[in-house]
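I have been asked to look over a protein record a colleague put together. What it holds is a sequence and that sequence's fold in token form. Please read both lines and tell me whether the tokens look consistent with the sequence. I do not need a full report, just your reasoning and any doubts. This is what I was given:
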Amino acid sequence: MPRKAKPAAPGGALDTEAMIRVDHAGEYGAVRIYQGQLAVLKHGAAADAIRHMAGQEERHLATFDRLVNERKVRPTALEPVWRVAGFALGAATALMGEKAAFACTAAVEEVIDEHYAGQIAALGDKDDALKATVADFRADEAAHRATALEHGAEQAPGYRLLSEAIKAGCRVAIKLSEKI
């Protein structure tokens, strides 16, 4: 019996709904990570840097909130999971210390940078408005990673293991949020 052709993969060149859904979920998760970190790290230079990055993530989330509504995109059904998981990841890494909190940021932003680069490539010459938004936010995410590295992310205890675990979790979250 012949196999049916598979539909385009979520996040592919023609699936802008999946792109918006996953980016909305990701920005929500980022906001929650920073909220968790700030619940622990309330004062000082690290908290100030995190507050600045959190403000940018809140702007990103507001933009994707608007796109979800304007384009009638179904948000991920996993939002309750990301609400808890994002905050828990932020708080847990902050409890490990400022460098671990920044290691979390560096890991997350590395994956998001790659993810946004893939979306920009997949969009090609389609949907210039979405492409410009993703490119703008990608620049912010790269700056967040640079900030995290400047604040000693790589000096966190167990940096390589922590970073790889967080990156793996982010990649799973992206795949799930595209589909669910």
User: Anything to note?
Assistant: DSSP finds six helices and no strands in the chain. The domain at 16-179 is CATH 1.20.1260 (Ferritin).
